[in-house]
Amino acid sequence: MTIKNIDAKTLKNWLDNDQAILIDVRQPAEHRSQKINKSTLIPLDEICKEKLPEIGNKKLVIHCQGGKRSLSACQKLLNENLGIEIYNLEGGINSWCSSGCNLEAKSNNFLPLDRQVQLTIGILTIFSVLLGFFVNINFLILTLIIGLGLVFAGLTGICP
Is the pTM of this model over 0.90? Predict the structure, then answer.
């Protein structure tokens, strides 16, 4: 079997007609903040065929925020030899919103994981430059390490 990408409109049609099971592989805080109606949360690090709900003759669709984690989840499930077709929501919940489909959203101050990482790296960079300027120039090595980490993450898709 292979992983097939689907768009948000197709998924909405399947969900409206009770033809699909939708699994959200984001983190619990992301799911609580906003979710697609009828989605079931199974975070990426926990996903396996034993945790899947009964699929029956429905289609299995996996989604995340932007499509990368869900693709990893699809591959993980495919490696477990489920013997079923697995669909990935192309563009994730972002494409769901862009296509005008509704979300269940709670108003809270949750920052998505990618923005948390960006904020942390930005603060570290500013802090290391200030320390390098006002305390000791050797603190600029921290800025170099941060930059190298970002380049590594960008090239490999791995963010330690």
Answer: no
